[in-house]
Amino acid sequence: MSDLSRLRELMRRLRDPLTGCPWDRAQTFTSVVPHTLEEAYELADAIERAVPQDIAAELGDLLFQVVFYAQLAEEAGLFTLDAVVSGFEDKLVRRHPHVFGGAPDLVEAGEVHARWEADKARERRARGSAASSELDDVPLALPALTRARKLQKRAARVGFDWPTAAGAWAKLHEELAEVEYAVAAGDAGATDDELGDLLFAVVNVVRHHERDPEALLRAANAKFERRFRHVEAALAVRGVAFADAAPDLLDALWEAAKRARLSDRA
User: Fold this and answer.
1) Of the four, 7, 46, 58, 204, which is 20 to 30 A from 216 by CA?
2) d(Cα 83, Cα 89) in Å, to the nearest integer?
3) How far apart are CA 257 and CA 126, in angstroms?
4) C-beta separation of 189 from 183 below 8 A
């Protein structure tokens, strides 16, 4: 029995109505989704930490999610894991004509990506009506930064975009001024609205500089955590509680943490 066949059999046993696991039997497509998202983030964390055994373990956890959904679908008579695999194989061949024949060679990664996105757009139009939007199928469950970037990229494909990064930067400054005005006016609703616009504008600037906002923010989070832990440790050595530390001391320790760099690129 192949490893995948064994995994499928284990999944069937977990879902057995009589002898299976009560937790696994109780799950639905909807209830499994939060676990899938969690596993995807745990895989991303393992990759960022560059620990091969952890990456392998998290890949296994994510694979189990795929098998779980396929088992639920098979029980409901919707589709099977074989159909999932077969459909994806067909899609890979269809979207890589430069590899599997039928199209001129593409030598640049950008060309390959552009063809892939064009094929996805044609598939969306084929599935939808004539009135379907370019923004269809951008998942609501994506992290907000990632979804903002994808929405902007979709709009940019049809020409709704700043021609250069300068336009995105100007919009960012405009949104910052609007936030400051709303705060000064004491308008809580307008402040929320303008803060959201400001974040969206930041994503636009990041996108124009061909960076991933989600990855950048994860890196910034990790850097803050390392530096904050450094400050905590320095206070502990001094026998000073965080709540009792003078602002000047905290500033000095923070600057020391920045100078130490603390493997910021690790």
Assistant:
1) 58
2) 10
3) 55
4) no
Q: What is the pLDDT of residue 264?
A: 53
Q: Are residues 198 and 238 located together in one domain of the fold? A: no
Q: Is residue 207 part of a domain?
A: yes
How many Å apart are CA 16 and CA 201, to the nearest integer? 50
62-98 burial code (b ≥16 CB/10 A, e <16): eebbebbbbbbbbeeeeeebeeeeeeeeeeeeebbee
Specify the DSSP class assigned to residue 128: S
Query: What residues of the chain score a pLDDT lower than 70?
Result: 1, 102-113, 121, 124-131, 262-266
Same structural domain for residues 193 and 229?
no
Q: Residue 70 sits in which domain range? A: 3-95
Distance of alpha carbon 93 from alpha carbon 102, whole angstroms: 11
The whole-model pTM stands at 0.67
User: Do residues 159 and 218 both lie within one domain?
Assistant: no
Tokens standing for residue 161: 């975009």
Both 228 and 203 in one domain: the answer is no
